[in-house]
Amino acid sequence: MSPRRNRPKGESSSGRSAEDDTASRYGGWQSAEAWQGERWSVRHVAGSSAQGKAYRCPGCDQLIPDGVPHVVAWPEHAGVDDRRHWHKACWNARDRRTPGVQRSRNAPRF
Length: 110
What we know:
Layout: H1 18-26, E1 30-35, E2 38-45, E3 55-56, E4 63-64, E5 70-75, E6 84-86, H2 88-92
Antiparallel strand pairs: 1-2, 2-5, 3-4, 5-6
């Protein structure tokens, strides 16, 4: 007896676009917002897709531990290297929240 199939045979032709697949892979949605005179691409990341990774939030200069939902934002004209991972609250308060703590010279950069 053969094992049961978990997926229907025609799943690849379900009518979903590659953009929909990207959104579901990262557990959120992507939008565009205007900030500081630029257009920013903003992707909301679910905590389950951020397992095993920690990032430093530019809004509060604190670590975003692995498994925590957060926001990834980058200017639309820039490339992958300019992506920044923000806490959701820091991204929502980005106009009034700037890092006030200056790290020492020998502090690690993330």
